[in-house]
Amino acid sequence: MSNTHTLIDNGYQAFPYTYCKSWNDRELKFARTVIFTVEEINRDTRLLPGVSLGYRLYDGCGDENIIRAAVEAVNGEDSKGCSHQVQALLGHSSSGLSKDINIILSPLSIPQVSHLSTCACLSDKRLYPTFFRTVPSDHFQIIGLVQFMKYFDWRWVGIIHAEELYSKESTADFTKAALKESICVEYTIPYSKTSETISRMDAIVKKLRKSSSKVVLLFMSLSLTKSFLSKMETYNITGKQWVGSESWITQVDLASIKRKSILQGAMGFALPQASIPGLDEFLLSLKPSDEPQSAIVKDFWEKVFHCSFSPSSTSTMCSGTEDLRTVSSAYTDVTHFRAENNVYKAVYLVANAIHALLQCKNGSNPTTGKPCVNKNEVQPKLVLEHIKYVNTPRQNGAKVFFDENRDSVAQYDLVNWQMREDGSVEIVNIGQYDTSFPEGEKFKLKDNTKIVWGGNSNEVPRSVCREPCPPGTRMAMNKFKPVCCFDCFDCPEGTISNQSNSPDCLICPPEFWPNKNKNKCLPKPTEYLSYKEIMGALLTGFCCVGVFLSLLTSIIFLTHKETPIVKANNSELSFLLLFSLTLCFLCSLTFIGQPSEWSCMLRHTAFGITFVLCISCVLGKTIVVLMAFRATLPGSNIMKWFGPIQQRLSVLIFTLIQVVICILWLTINPPFPKKNMKYYKDKIILECALGSAVGFWAVMGYIGLLALLCFMLAFLARKLPDRFNEARLITFSMLIFCAVWITFIPAYVSTPGKFTVAVEIFAILASSFGLLVCIFVPKCYIIIFKPKQNSKIHLMRKIPGRTL
Q1: Who has the most CB within 10 Å: 54, 314, 585, 751?
Q2: Whether the Cβ atoms of residue 219 and residue 245 lie closer than 8 Å to each other
């Protein structure tokens, strides 16, 4: 007996039998569940008072029986000439056969209710207008399977499916739904019981062993699953996580010692467990004497007890009193009712529809508002109309109601095969999928539930075509491979990705730069010439040395201010020059440290003013030398035009000009602190922007002009005769000064970052040291080490001129 159809009517019952080559104990169990439910309803005087349900069971093992059932339903007369009024048809278990049945019966408006036809194609009411089912559509199971695989991050799966409507449709729908969640199917292998040869099985096994996916989805009916697993017993397939559909995942009779290694840890969605009081006793109390005319029961009895009712030399005689509780088969498994509950609900569905149809209140039906109908006027199309309104809880708490596609609400248990050492199977409920729950809560795993994985592993299998692209990389599709087999590329310089499988790399904000792993933007390190670093400390040290030498020279000159050498070289300008040199050394310190608004304005203006003061003093000394020698000529009174007052005024005027330039610069467009992020990609240069470039070069140009003028005058006076001609020393100092600042310009423009500041400080120190050493060191040497030469007689002695 392969599958069973049940025609429900109002007057008779029978159990016809047509011989079939194969048996399906589960279908006999479904048929007996129909009988149990009909008898339960008929005993309930509240549901259908004055009305009794009848049934007629048809063996669905061949197409001819399907056609016969349809013809008898159409004609209202069976093969024995008994007339009846068929109100509904229950069945078939197979989606393909249910489709064919509905095509025949739907023109007659006869409702068809299936307990196990799950193909999503049957939800199309344009093609199958009278089809209902108490089992969820595969559409929901497929969505649940996709969410289940997404939960465990199984992105790379294989599918083995049967060449039948249920399997083909489910495979195609799963592939589409999975792709939306970035789950790819590595292969789909069709399987057919009649066409599978040894070579074909070898090809399937070779494909399984060669594949990289660890998860295998088995979309098959129960009978084909048995056939497939029986052939797989001879192959040693390990390391695969088998996932089953509801059609076979709860059938413990699939287990065997040889299949233990294959199905251990198998998982899948099953119809929810249900409690149907009294059904277990009813099923197990079956005896051949209860159905003495039924060849089906006799054949079933001989099969499960390995006996015979006819004398046989190969088997023992059946007594008919054997106890079904002592054997194990799909029929005797009454620990949980899953598919049987759908049969139970299907019968109650029709009974409730008839109950709603026969209701009468104030001359009309309270459900539809149409005139009342008595029990003799019940028609299939009226039953069909009222089935849509059924939403009544039954004794076991189950509700029967439908969505807009006349599909029942989807509820599944996620089960796990856990095999014991003796080969027996425990189907453990580890989670659930319920479409009535809010989004995001439909799929749940039970807490603290032990899960056995495929291959008896303690860890969740990893099944991906490509491991996720880690942060710091981007994911790129390969048009020659499935979307799950993407490529990973490192993020380009200056970009990051902070999540796995990021499709793009993000550019860091201007003040940030990626870390080494390119998964986070970190603030760019800032660069400026600091006192704490070696170069800053060295330059600071030289500044301090310069200040010390300037003060030391001032002290020497001050203590020897009455000596001829100090007086002869214009002591007032010398002290002012030493003071300005001290300021020059000190102003270089303003270039060190983090730039601020005040430091940026101070460093350039202080530098410009102090250097002009310094050059003005040198220029004044040079002019004094020239005037002094001119004054020795007969009749010359030139010195009165460049006496001490004029010297002071010249220094003041030259300096005030620079002060005015600096004030204009600071007023119009002053220097300001700036973050330079263009020169280096990975760090920020803290520098002082010039503000007005014209102002900066005006300050520098004015200093250069004075230095050039001073150099030219000193050069003209270099050959004047004297024991100690200061013009030669000024010439050397200005030569060094000009050489330093001429070299400074290209170095300043081309040097990056903090080195620009270092070059500027170096130029200030070098030129300051040049002036200090060239002008004052020879004098200090004479004062300290050659005091005899520090006399008026020695200084007044004429010496021949020298070439520079």
Answers
A1: 585
A2: yes
pTM: 0.65
Average pLDDT, the chain: 83
Does residue 303 form part of some domain? no
Q: Which two tokens stand for residue 781?
A: 């040497």
Q: What is the pLDDT of residues 294-333, one digit of tens each?
A: 888 888 999 899 899 888 777 789 999 999 999 988 889 8
* Residues comprising the chain, all counted: 804
Rounded alpha-carbon distances, angstroms, from residue 184 to 454, 593, 663: 20, 59, 73
* Domain count of the fold of the chain: 4
* Residue 687: its H or E element: strand 684-689
Within this chain, do residues 495 and 564 fall inside the same structural domain, yes or no? no
How far apart CA 130 and CA 654 sit, in angstroms, is: 110
Q: Which residue did the predictor score with more confidence, 522 or 750?
A: 522
Please state the separation of Cα 575 from the chain's center in Å: 74
Strand-strand pairing, 487-490 and 184-191: unpaired
Place of tokens 């040199």: 581
Q: What ranges make up the beta strands (E) of 310-353? A: 316-317
402 dihedral zone (left: phi>0; alpha: psi -120 to 50; beta)? beta
Same-domain check for residues 418 and 389? no
C-alpha span between 686 and 591 (Å, rounded): 12
Tokens 């008994």 sit at which residue? 82
Q: Is the peptide bond before 5 cis (omega within 30 degrees of 0)?
A: no
399 strand-pairing partners: 393
pLDDT tens for each residue of 714-772? 777 666 555 445 667 777 777 887 888 788 778 777 777 788 888 888 888 888 888 88
Q: Are residues 788 and 670 in the same domain?
A: yes
Whether 491 is in a domain gets the answer yes
User: 26: closest CA among 56, 60, 64?
Assistant: 60
| Domain span at 194 | 138-270+410-456
Cβ–Cβ under 8 Å, residues 372 and 360: yes
Q: What is the CA radius of gyration of the chain?
A: 53
Which CATH number fits the domain that encloses residue 646?
1.20.1070.10
Q: Are residues 644 and 719 in the same domain?
A: yes
What is the rounded distance in angstroms from the CA atom of residue 126 to the CA atom of residue 391? 24
Classify residue 357: in a domain, yes or no.
Answer: yes
Q: Which residues pair with 132 in a beta bridge?
A: 113
Backbone angles phi, psi at 314, to 5 degrees: -100, -15
